[in-house]
Amino acid sequence: TGKLPSPKQVNDLLTSDFFLPFANKPAHKEMREKARRLIFKYVNEHKDDITRTWATERSFELYLDGVVVSGRADVIYDEHDGVIDNLAIVDYKTATGGEVYPLQLQVYADAGRREGLTVAAAFIHDMSTTTRHTIDISADAVKKAEQQVIEAAGLLKKRDFTPRPEKAKCTSCDVKTVCGAAKLK
Protein backbone atom coordinates (compact mmCIF):
# COMPACT_ATOMS: atom_id res chain seq x y z
CA THR A 1 0.00 0.00 0.00
CA GLY A 2 3.03 2.28 0.29
CA LYS A 3 2.19 2.91 3.94
CA LEU A 4 3.56 1.35 7.10
CA PRO A 5 1.16 -0.77 9.13
CA SER A 6 -0.13 0.86 12.28
CA PRO A 7 0.56 -0.78 15.65
CA LYS A 8 -3.12 -1.76 15.79
CA GLN A 9 -2.90 -3.41 12.35
CA VAL A 10 0.17 -5.38 13.43
CA ASN A 11 -1.55 -6.51 16.63
CA ASP A 12 -4.73 -7.43 14.73
CA LEU A 13 -2.71 -9.52 12.25
CA LEU A 14 -0.92 -11.31 15.06
CA THR A 15 -4.24 -12.04 16.75
CA SER A 16 -5.88 -13.36 13.58
CA ASP A 17 -2.98 -15.00 11.72
CA PHE A 18 -0.25 -16.05 14.17
CA PHE A 19 -0.52 -19.83 13.93
CA LEU A 20 1.35 -22.30 16.13
CA PRO A 21 -0.67 -25.52 16.03
CA PHE A 22 1.37 -27.44 18.59
CA ALA A 23 1.94 -24.74 21.20
CA ASN A 24 -0.01 -24.70 24.45
CA LYS A 25 -1.65 -21.41 25.50
CA PRO A 26 1.22 -20.07 27.66
CA ALA A 27 3.83 -20.94 25.00
CA HIS A 28 1.67 -19.44 22.25
CA LYS A 29 1.25 -16.23 24.23
CA GLU A 30 4.99 -15.97 24.91
CA MET A 31 5.96 -16.65 21.27
CA ARG A 32 3.31 -14.24 19.99
CA GLU A 33 4.75 -11.50 22.22
CA LYS A 34 8.29 -12.23 21.01
CA ALA A 35 7.04 -12.10 17.42
CA ARG A 36 5.28 -8.81 18.14
CA ARG A 37 8.51 -7.26 19.48
CA LEU A 38 10.49 -8.53 16.48
CA ILE A 39 7.94 -7.15 14.04
CA PHE A 40 7.79 -3.73 15.69
CA LYS A 41 11.58 -3.57 15.73
CA TYR A 42 11.75 -4.58 12.08
CA VAL A 43 9.11 -2.06 11.06
CA ASN A 44 10.99 0.71 12.89
CA GLU A 45 14.41 -0.22 11.49
CA HIS A 46 13.34 -0.97 7.90
CA LYS A 47 10.62 1.57 7.16
CA ASP A 48 12.07 2.39 3.76
CA ASP A 49 12.13 -1.26 2.68
CA ILE A 50 8.54 -1.90 3.65
CA THR A 51 7.23 0.96 1.53
CA ARG A 52 9.22 -0.40 -1.47
CA THR A 53 7.64 -3.87 -1.33
CA TRP A 54 7.31 -5.23 -4.86
CA ALA A 55 6.03 -8.71 -3.93
CA THR A 56 5.63 -11.02 -0.95
CA GLU A 57 5.67 -14.82 -1.05
CA ARG A 58 6.64 -14.64 -4.73
CA SER A 59 6.91 -18.04 -6.43
CA PHE A 60 9.91 -18.90 -8.58
CA GLU A 61 10.75 -21.90 -10.75
CA LEU A 62 14.22 -22.53 -12.09
CA TYR A 63 14.45 -24.89 -15.05
CA LEU A 64 17.82 -26.60 -15.35
CA ASP A 65 19.02 -29.68 -17.20
CA GLY A 66 16.98 -32.54 -15.78
CA VAL A 67 15.47 -30.67 -12.82
CA VAL A 68 12.96 -27.97 -11.95
CA VAL A 69 13.45 -26.20 -8.63
CA SER A 70 10.46 -24.42 -7.12
CA GLY A 71 10.53 -21.94 -4.28
CA ARG A 72 8.89 -18.90 -2.79
CA ALA A 73 10.75 -15.71 -1.92
CA ASP A 74 9.67 -14.10 1.33
CA VAL A 75 9.77 -10.55 0.00
CA ILE A 76 11.11 -8.62 -2.96
CA TYR A 77 11.82 -4.92 -2.68
CA ASP A 78 11.90 -2.54 -5.62
CA GLU A 79 14.18 0.43 -6.13
CA HIS A 80 17.29 -1.22 -4.74
CA ASP A 81 20.00 1.45 -4.61
CA GLY A 82 17.32 3.97 -5.64
CA VAL A 83 16.84 2.50 -9.14
CA ILE A 84 13.30 1.67 -10.32
CA ASP A 85 12.85 -2.01 -11.30
CA ASN A 86 16.13 -2.88 -9.54
CA LEU A 87 14.96 -5.68 -7.25
CA ALA A 88 16.33 -7.08 -3.99
CA ILE A 89 15.17 -10.46 -2.69
CA VAL A 90 15.09 -10.97 1.07
CA ASP A 91 14.65 -14.26 2.90
CA TYR A 92 13.84 -14.10 6.60
CA LYS A 93 15.26 -16.62 9.03
CA THR A 94 14.22 -16.74 12.67
CA ALA A 95 17.89 -17.38 13.49
CA THR A 96 20.96 -18.25 11.45
CA GLY A 97 23.34 -19.12 14.26
CA GLY A 98 25.93 -17.17 12.31
CA GLU A 99 25.76 -19.62 9.40
CA VAL A 100 24.37 -18.28 6.12
CA TYR A 101 23.65 -20.59 3.20
CA PRO A 102 23.30 -18.71 -0.11
CA LEU A 103 21.97 -21.45 -2.43
CA GLN A 104 18.26 -20.70 -1.97
CA LEU A 105 18.62 -17.01 -2.83
CA GLN A 106 21.02 -17.71 -5.67
CA VAL A 107 18.38 -20.00 -7.18
CA TYR A 108 15.68 -17.33 -6.75
CA ALA A 109 17.92 -14.68 -8.32
CA ASP A 110 18.68 -17.00 -11.24
CA ALA A 111 15.00 -17.82 -11.77
CA GLY A 112 14.00 -14.16 -11.58
CA ARG A 113 16.65 -13.12 -14.07
CA ARG A 114 15.49 -15.83 -16.46
CA GLU A 115 12.02 -14.28 -16.20
CA GLY A 116 13.50 -10.96 -17.29
CA LEU A 117 13.58 -9.34 -13.84
CA THR A 118 16.51 -7.19 -12.78
CA VAL A 119 17.58 -8.90 -9.57
CA ALA A 120 20.33 -6.67 -8.26
CA ALA A 121 20.70 -7.96 -4.71
CA ALA A 122 19.78 -10.74 -2.32
CA PHE A 123 19.88 -10.84 1.46
CA ILE A 124 19.24 -13.24 4.31
CA HIS A 125 17.77 -11.36 7.24
CA ASP A 126 18.38 -12.96 10.64
CA MET A 127 15.40 -11.85 12.72
CA SER A 128 16.95 -12.87 16.05
CA THR A 129 19.97 -10.59 15.63
CA THR A 130 18.39 -8.14 13.14
CA THR A 131 21.40 -8.75 10.92
CA ARG A 132 21.07 -8.61 7.15
CA HIS A 133 23.61 -10.75 5.28
CA THR A 134 24.43 -9.94 1.65
CA ILE A 135 24.34 -12.95 -0.67
CA ASP A 136 26.63 -13.18 -3.68
CA ILE A 137 24.42 -13.38 -6.77
CA SER A 138 27.14 -12.60 -9.29
CA ALA A 139 27.14 -14.56 -12.54
CA ASP A 140 29.89 -16.86 -11.22
CA ALA A 141 28.11 -17.54 -7.92
CA VAL A 142 24.82 -18.27 -9.70
CA LYS A 143 26.57 -20.61 -12.16
CA LYS A 144 28.10 -22.53 -9.23
CA ALA A 145 24.67 -22.72 -7.59
CA GLU A 146 23.20 -24.16 -10.79
CA GLN A 147 25.91 -26.85 -10.83
CA GLN A 148 25.24 -27.66 -7.18
CA VAL A 149 21.52 -28.08 -7.88
CA ILE A 150 22.12 -30.25 -10.96
CA GLU A 151 24.57 -32.46 -9.03
CA ALA A 152 22.20 -32.83 -6.07
CA ALA A 153 19.29 -33.68 -8.37
CA GLY A 154 21.43 -36.26 -10.14
CA LEU A 155 22.26 -37.95 -6.84
CA LEU A 156 18.60 -37.97 -5.83
CA LYS A 157 17.59 -39.51 -9.16
CA LYS A 158 20.20 -42.25 -8.66
CA ARG A 159 18.88 -42.72 -5.09
CA ASP A 160 22.38 -42.00 -3.84
CA PHE A 161 21.97 -40.88 -0.25
CA THR A 162 25.58 -41.40 0.75
CA PRO A 163 26.41 -39.14 3.71
CA ARG A 164 28.87 -36.40 2.91
CA PRO A 165 29.69 -35.07 6.37
CA GLU A 166 31.68 -31.91 6.85
CA LYS A 167 32.27 -30.25 10.17
CA ALA A 168 30.92 -26.92 8.92
CA LYS A 169 27.66 -28.53 7.73
CA CYS A 170 27.25 -31.02 10.57
CA THR A 171 27.63 -28.58 13.46
CA SER A 172 24.59 -26.59 12.31
CA CYS A 173 22.48 -29.52 11.11
CA ASP A 174 19.08 -30.14 12.73
CA VAL A 175 19.59 -33.92 12.91
CA LYS A 176 23.23 -34.02 14.01
CA THR A 177 22.40 -35.72 17.33
CA VAL A 178 20.86 -38.75 15.62
CA CYS A 179 23.05 -38.95 12.53
CA GLY A 180 25.68 -41.66 12.60
CA ALA A 181 27.80 -39.85 10.01
CA ALA A 182 27.88 -36.45 11.71
CA LYS A 183 31.30 -34.84 12.09
CA LEU A 184 31.05 -32.69 15.17
CA LYS A 185 34.67 -32.67 16.33
Kindly describe this structure.
The chain is an alpha+beta fold. The chain has helices at 7-17, 25-45, 47-51, 103-114, 139-157, 167-170; strands spanning 53-64, 67-77, 86-93, 118-126, 131-134. The radius of gyration is 19 Å and the shape is globular. It starts with 6 loop residues before the first helix and ends in a 15-residue tail after the last helix.
Helix-strand category: alpha+beta
The separation of the N and C termini measures 50 Å
Report the helical percentage: 25-40%
Q: How many β-strand runs?
A: 5
Share of β-strand residues: 15-25%
Please tally the helical runs, counting DSSP H or I stretches of 4 or more residues.
6
The main pleated sheet reads as: 5 strands, mixed
Rg, nearest Å:
19 Å
Mean pLDDT: 91
Give the arrangement of secondary structure elements:
Layout: H1 7-17, H2 25-45, H3 47-51, E1 53-64, E2 67-77, E3 86-93, H4 103-114, E4 118-126, E5 131-134, H5 139-157, H6 167-170
Task: Describe the structure in brief.
The chain has 185 residues and is of the alpha+beta class.
Features:
185 residues; 39% helix; single chain; 6 helices; alpha+beta; 5-stranded mixed β-sheet
